[in-house]
Structure formats: structure tokens, C-alpha cells
């Protein structure tokens, strides 16, 4: 579906104006705030044994490897989890020790796409160089068990939110329904939060009903003017309540509220910050199901919403910077799309949400001030299955008169086609075989927006 090109501007009309925006093909509008239609190896503290421990004897599972796995892997690699095998015991980990070492050395596991050194984010899923070396040594020395009596424990990242203000519940058990011959199903559930006034979302927690098939969850709000479109979509899909939705909610002006993938902690903006949900809005919950581990499985995922008490000190806005006029030629393995915006005022950036589809190779966002580039997020190896929400440890102040640039690289070669398709020219769209070049920015809402 084509974008509606209804743009929100980062300033009060008539008071501030956007200085300009540009694109490599001259067609992108590029304003932070345009609402296109969409779905949706760092170094951390060492969670393994100390250097002194390693020096005193061989690397063993219970003393060194177990805490690393508990901190970074077991949330997915556990019985009933989304991962295809478990890593929650010595008996499970030993047979795959060599593959485990290779995975962490390559950076493919644990999945943490942002490049180290570009932005300092909360809740990173990353292993240190020392931990990688320990896993490799353990694998190369026969994966010794060690002494269970002296087992070390990992530091699991948690966020405690308390009782929710509202639970978004579809109200029924959904049966995964991928297309014939496929394993992936994208379904949107419509839920009424029954708001008689505007509320501000401060935190979001997804509760998967079936961990073995729920791959990601995205939550949107849709204003009252979207009611007829939602009804149209539900009428088109008679298989179950809700409707099918690969690229996004298939609405003209949805507001992205939050997201979740396995292994992540709840999204928490803080008690004094929140995103507005307008009175009379509906919630649209997109769930990506991967049915490989449980063909025919059912699910009743819910989302717990936590509101601020009244109007927050900091009202956040989640606004998109997008190149909606992208054109990726068939066979082009090195396609590059960019879009920029010049900011007339400073903004406080709290997080970023990069997004592409299946042909994406890499995506990055930077700002330029007085000829100096500052990296905001860089994902050098895009993986559609591991897209995420990235909140900064501290807000990033982008000075006024800066230029913000989004760059997306795509591979549309025959070797990189989903389902072995023949390459074709690809443009913006929500379909499986369409593409997007998009980054949501989570900012402090400027006065007048």
C-alpha cells in the first residue's frame, strides 16, 4: 500500500519551519515525522568468571560458561522457547560447544545488531571479548563440565513494572495460519483500550502465549478516523478476528507504541515520560508467528500497558524518517537509498527503531553539524528477524541546524531473493516482497508539534 504522505512537522506552523530535506533520488520527503505505513557486537560487562579464575585452571561449564549462557542465551534457548535447541544445561550445551564458539565469534549470536561504538544503548545483548575467548577455549579443550557444587550464575537483565493499567488481550486462542508451504504468519489483532481521555504510555510488556512460535510483537495505536479502514481489513480476512499484516498494520496513520522480540526486557521509558494515546483510539497488535517449532500451535499473546499518572514531564513522540520513494533495480546487489532532513531546532533523542524488509543489507543514521558526523545507530548486517527498539542510556541532544541522514543498503541480486524468486524492481510497500527504508526516532515532543 502506498504511503499517504501526510507529514507531521517538527515545529509549530508559522513559527518554525524545516530548513530543507534531500534524497539521493530527489523524491524522498525526508521529514522526521512523516507517517509512512509500516509494520516494523557490542561490549558489555563480563558475566563469566574472573580472569583470576581462568588463570587458576581450565575453563569449565559450571564455573565459566553457564553464567555467560544464562545472561545472554537461555531466555530464547530454553524448553518451549523460540530457539530451535536448548542451552540451559551442561548436557545440552556440550554437544554444540564448537558451533556455539563459532556463533559468538561471528557475532551472529546473541542477536544484537547495532554496531559497537555507535550509540550507547540500554539492555544490550552482547558478550565480551574475554567471554568469547572463554567459550572458544572451552570448546577446544573438550567442553569440560567442572564442579556443579561451585556453579556460578549469570546476571539476567530485568525490568520490574508492577501492575499494568490495561492488558491488551485479543480474547481468543489464535491458530497460526502461514501461507501454504511457509512457516511465517503475520497477524494483526484489534483491541479497544476503552479510553475516555488521552493517556500516556510509559511502559510496555509483551506476554507471549506460546513462546515456541511468537517471534516478535509490535503495538500501534490507531485514531478514531481509522475505524472504517480497520473494519475493511477485518472484513477482508474471514479466517479469524483481526487481519493478516506482513509489513505493518496497513493503516494510513498508525502510531507505533512499542515492540518486543525474544530475549528483550520490557520497553520502559520511565515514570516521567510517555507517548500519547488519543481518546477513542484502538490498539493494533501485530504478532509474527514462526510455526517451525510447533506446527498448528495456538497462541494468545497479551500486552501489558502502563500509563503515567497524568501528563508526564516529558511527552515523547515516535516519528518516522523514511525514504518512501525508493527504487531498487532488479539485479542490483549494491543499491543505496538515503534521505536527509535539516533540523531548525535542537531535539532530544531517546531512542531509534530502524526498519527494512528482506532485501536489506545495512542501515544507519547519523547527524552532521559543522561538517562533523555523529553516528546515532549503525546496523551493518541487517536481519529482518532481529529488528528491535533501541533506547539510549542517556538522551542524545541533536543541535539545531544539524542534518540527520538515514542510509539504507539493499541486495536485490538473484542470490538474495526471498523464496528463490526472480529479481524485480522493488519499491516502497508493506508487502512481503516490497521494501522500506525507515527509522523511527523517539524524541521529546517539541512545543507546537
Task: Report a brief summary of the structure.
By secondary structure, the protein is mainly beta. The protein is about 10% helix and about 30% strand.
Describe the structure.
By secondary structure, the chain is mostly beta strands. The protein folds into two domains: 20-41 and 161-444, Jelly Rolls; 51-150, no CATH class. The protein is 12% helix and 31% strand. The protein has six helices and 23 strands. Strands 2, 5, 9, 10, 13, 14, 17, 20 and 23 form a nine-stranded mixed sheet that branches. Helix 2 (61-72) packs across helix 5 and helix 4 (97-106) packs antiparallel against helix 5. The model is unreliable at 1-50 (pLDDT under 50).
Helix and strand layout, with pairings?
Elements: E1 20-23, H1 51-56, H2 61-72, H3 90-93, H4 97-106, H5 129-140, E2 166-168, E3 174-175, E4 184-191, E5 199-207, E6 214-222, H6 227-236, E7 243-244, E8 255-260, E9 267-268, E10 273-277, E11 282-290, E12 298-299, E13 302-307, E14 314-322, E15 327-328, E16 335-342, E17 347-355, E18 360-369, E19 372-379, E20 390-398, E21 403-410, E22 426-427, E23 438-444
Helix pairs in contact: 2-5, 4-5
Core attributes:
nine-stranded mixed β-sheet; 449 residues; disordered N terminus; 2 domains; Jelly Rolls; five-stranded antiparallel β-sheet; globular
The CATH topology of the largest domain turns out to be: Jelly Rolls
* Mean pLDDT metric: 85
Note the overall shape: globular
Number of domains: 2
Strand content: 25-35%
Number of separate helices: 6
CATH top level class name of the largest domain: Mainly Beta
Amino acid at each position: 500500500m502506498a504511503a499517504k504522505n501526510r507529514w507531521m512537522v517538527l515545529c509549530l506552523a508559522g513559527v518554525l519551519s524545516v530548513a530543507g530535506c534531500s534524497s539521493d533520488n530527489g523524491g524522498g520527503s525526508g521529514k522526521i515525522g512523516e507517517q509512512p505505513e509500516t509494520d516494523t557486537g557490542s561490549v558489555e560487562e563480563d558475566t563469566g568468571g574472573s580472569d583470576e579464575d581462568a588463570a587458576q585452571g581450565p575453563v569449565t561449564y559450571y564455573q565459566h560458561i553457564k553464567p555467560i549462557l544464562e545472561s545472554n542465551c537461555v531466555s530464547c534457548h530454553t524448553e518451549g522457547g523460540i530457539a530451535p535447541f536448548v542451552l540451559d544445561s551442561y548436557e545440552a550445551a556440550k554437544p554444540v560447544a564448537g558451533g556455539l564458539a563459532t556463533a559468538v565469534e561471528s557475532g551472529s549470536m546473541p542477536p544484537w545488531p547495532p554496531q559497537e561504538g555507535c550509540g550507547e544503548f540500554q539492555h544490550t545483548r552482547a558478550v565480551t571479548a574475554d567471554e568469547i575467548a572463554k567459550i572458544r577455549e572451552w570448546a577446544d579443550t573438550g567442553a569440560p563440565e567442572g564442579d556443579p557444587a561451585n556453579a556460578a550464575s549469570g546476571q539476567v537483565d530485568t525490568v520490574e513494572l508492577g501492575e499494568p493499567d490495561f492488558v491488551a488481550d485479543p480474547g481468543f486462542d489464535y491458530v497460526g495460519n502461514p501461507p501454504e508451504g511457509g512457516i511465517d504468519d503475520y497477524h494483526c489483532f484489534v483491541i479497544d483500550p476503552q479510553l475516555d481521555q488521552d493517556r500516556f504510555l510509559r511502559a510496555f510488556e509483551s506476554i507471549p502465549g506460546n513462546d515456541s512460535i511468537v517471534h516478535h510483537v509490535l503495538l500501534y495505536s490507531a485514531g478514531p478516523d481509522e475505524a472504517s479502514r480497520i473494519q475493511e481489513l477485518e472484513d477482508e480476512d474471514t479466517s479469524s478476528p483481526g487481519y493478516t499484516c506482513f509489513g505493518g498494520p496497513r493503516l494510513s496513520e498508525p502510531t507505533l507504541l512499542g515492540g518486543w522480540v525474544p530475549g528483550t526486557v520490557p520497553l520502559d521509558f520511565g515514570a516521567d515520560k510517555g507517548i500519547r494515546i488519543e481518546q477513542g483510539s484502538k490498539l493494533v497488535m501485530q504478532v509474527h508467528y514462526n510455526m517451525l517449532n510447533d506446527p498448528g500451535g495456538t497462541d494468545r499473546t497479551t500486552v501489558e500497558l502502563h500509563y503515567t499518572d497524568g501528563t508526564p514531564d516529558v511527552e515523547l513522540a515516535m516519528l518516522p524518517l523514511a525514504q518512501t520513494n525508493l527504487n531498487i533495480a532488479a539485479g542490483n546487489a549494491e543499491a543505496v537509498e538515503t534521505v536527509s532532513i535539516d533540523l531548525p531546532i535542537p531535539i532530544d533523542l531517546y531512542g531509534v527503531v530502524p526498519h527494512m524488509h528482506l532485501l536489506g543489507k545495512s542501515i544507519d543514521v547519523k547527524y552532521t553539524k559543522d561538517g562533523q558526523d555523529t553516528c546515532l545507530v549503525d546496523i551493518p548486517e541487517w536481519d529482518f528477524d532481529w529488528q528491535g527498539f533501541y533506547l539510549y542510556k542517556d538522551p542524545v541532544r541533536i543541535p539545531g541546524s544539524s542534518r540527520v541522514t538515514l542510509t539504507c543498503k539493499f541486495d536485490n541480486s538473484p542470490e538474495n531473493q526471498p523464496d528463490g524468486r526472480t529479481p524485480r524492481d522493488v519499491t516502497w510497500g508493506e508487502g512481503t516482497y516490497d521494501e522500506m527504508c525507515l527509522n523511527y526516532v523517539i524524541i521529546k515532543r517539541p512545543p507546537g508539534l
